[in-house]
Amino acid sequence: MLKRAMFRCGQLCSRVFAVEFDLRTEPLYFTLNSTPQVLHKAYQELFGDDGKLFSLHVHCDNRIEKAQTHAEIKHQLSIALSRDCDVFEASSFIPDVKNSLVKGFFIRDKSTTDLSEDVLKTLQQSKSVCVFSYKREGQYCWQEMLSPVNQVEESVRQYITPAAAAEHHPSTLNIRNSDVFYNMDEAYKVLKECTDIIPESKEVLKLVDEQLETSRGDGFPVIVIEGLDATGKTTLTEALRESLNATLLKSPPQCLAPFRQRFDSEPPLIRRAFYALGNYITAAHIGKESLRAPVIVDRFWHSTAAYAIATAVGGRVENLPEPGSELYKWPEDLLKPNLVLLLTVSPEERLRRLRDRGQDKTIEEAELEVNQLFRLKVEEAYKRIQNPACIIVDASPSPQEVLQQVQHLIRNKYHL
């Protein structure tokens, strides 16, 4: 079987495992070794005597199947396991090898039942899923393949060995053209692979094909307004449209509105490809409209990339790709705006505005309300994107004061 080939002893020992055990710190890293290794500190907390331990890994040559399987398993674990089970994001990877990351979960079961083991054995019936159990003996812990239902396999004992932290968070190995797309063709290919299972993909690709021309000459300035939800983007963009006699566009474009609910329910790979293509459709509209008037854009590639990177990278802000990383580089085939403004308000003010609005939010926007770490990562990712970089605007004052501040920035540069 594929899983047996991929997870045979030799390859397992070449991989590093990472568990997001405490989101306030970096992941806990370990490798496997045939020689017993003494565990200490955080490793004792994770692999201690309290409960049964398992890890589950999703791998498949078909990236669409792999993404969907991972999402389905995440949902199954959330509803099938008891409240006495802790589920942590986990992965294995080969250091410094791009696209080597295999995503999964680490399960710590403190219950007295066999429910978690039964659930995991059922999940392991999929050819894309491999499950390991962990056994302890004194200060040592080892990993074994969890035997499938009605099958007994010879155990290969591989001991947990603490490993040094990776230079970069392991999720960064797989971000390029998986969580963030850096050219249209890569995003297009993802939806092309989905046409048999997601009929709406064909309609989206048809819209993209109709809007392939994105080049423009020396037209009017293009100004993008970015920021978290409830920072005043809609109010400001409408005011700028009127004051500058400009065209107002939004990303994703209105033509994709009928498909957003469908793609929002898909795994990150598919959802990100959908929104990436939305940027290229918006770029085509910008190219046409900027020949006639200034163009104001409510969100663009900065939002797509910032949210995707913050979601893909677990834990704290320090886990993000370092400033200057290629992952913050603007796509070469995507039209560049002349000016990008990032609206910011205090967390308290933003939450107040959200409560006052009381409207539906995306999953990621809802998470911003309850997850301070996620909010901080999104804001920092915004600030690290370069060429073009964001100019930060304090959007806490009244809408009229914010408008005057932004008008001053625009007029100083373009004399509009």
From TrEMBL:
Pfam families the UniProt entry points to: Thymidylate_kin
Enzyme Commission number(s) of this protein: 2.7.4.14, 2.7.4.9
GO biological process, any: dTDP biosynthetic process
Matches recorded under InterPro entries: P-loop_NTPase, Thymidylate_kin-like_dom, Thymidylate_kinase, UMP-CMP_kinase_2
Gene Ontology molecular function: ATP binding; dTMP kinase activity; nucleoside diphosphate kinase activity; nucleoside monophosphate kinase activity
Sequence ranges assigned to domain Thymidylate kinase-like in this UniProt record: 225-405
Enzyme class at the top of the EC tree: transferase
A GO term from the CC aspect: mitochondrion
Origin superkingdom: Eukaryota
Claim: Translocase is one of the keywords in the record: no
Keywords: ATP-binding, Coiled coil, Kinase, Mitochondrion, Nucleotide biosynthesis, Nucleotide-binding, Pyrimidine biosynthesis, Transferase, Transit peptide
TM region positions: none
Subcellular location: Mitochondrion
Matches recorded under Gene3D superfamilies: P-loop containing nucleotide triphosphate hydrolases
Similarity comment text for this entry: Belongs to the thymidylate kinase family.
Identification of the protein by name: UMP-CMP kinase 2, mitochondrial
Organism: Cirrhinus molitorella (mud carp)
